Fold this protein.
Amino acid sequence: MRAIVKTKMAPGAELLDVEVPRPKDGEVLVKVKATSICGTDVHIYNWDSAAQVYIKTVPQIQGHEFAGEVVEVGRKTRKFRIGDYVSAETHFYCGKCVQCRSGQKHICDTEKGRIFGLSCDGCFAEYVAVPESILWRNDPGLPPEIATLQEPLGNAVYCALGDYDNNLNGKAVLILGDGPIAMLASGVCKAEGARLVVIVGRHQRRLEISREMGADVGINEKEEDVAESLARLHISGRFDVVLEMAGSRSARDLAIDSVRDGGRISLFGIDTDPFFIENCGQYVRSAKKILPITGRLIWRSWNQARKLLDSGRLDMTPVITHKYPLEEFDKGFLAMNHRPKVSGKVVMYP
């Protein structure tokens, strides 16, 4: 089969002919119908410092977002059959540790660091072997280019809805950052009844896509004074929810300043800067909640995403900006690396 393989601990990847994997006990073999590029895949392709956190050995097949059909099942496979239309969660979990038993399978203590397509071969290929424990059965009518986006959609759902105050009806939401997950979050927030969704970013095309997804206001921080633009909105009591999806100290500071007392901040962006709260006593009295977001709640976020897609209130097609056959993968990564950023999600077809 053809597969996109990271062959060197250096920039780039190669399209190679490799053996079709055989499913082990508890695994299935999936014929991939569509796969999509994540920002993490771009880090690995570029081979920057973020990539080196994940990839420890090469060669390795890249990719972790996909939709496909089960064509073979291994021994001890119980829940899935040949012909099932599936996608997959990326975090492996044991189901037995404290986190797993507390509804936090995405941060399983036993399987910490094991992520499909990062710590093992992934799905940028014609076929992929996947443990049935992380498989998700898709609605048969869901187009493959939409089904492959359910994994990143789960990020957006978890970030937008949180894990305790998941009712956005009538609320004002501020999104900081304009990456693909932020674009999806714009749609999720509006579909979940937010009365106002404001997104702040620095790439005009991405802000336009966010507006297509449902954001009411897009603020380009390169062209506008963000504080003045937010002040002109006359939000009484500030925002109920702020999604920090930019990954910078300035965005975190703005998130704390912009959320109302008792409101919630979802921290999704990642960087290595220190995180300071200047006046702890004042912050404690404000009762502002900070929720770090990693991955998705398994399988809660997946079910919430399914309900949104089934309802017809969420249309993800504006986020899909590029489509390529698998052999033109370099064009997909070029689109993701283009500056100024104009890409949303890039879908590839084996």
Remarks:
- The chain has two domains: 2-149+316-349, 155-292.
- The chain has eleven helices and 16 strands.
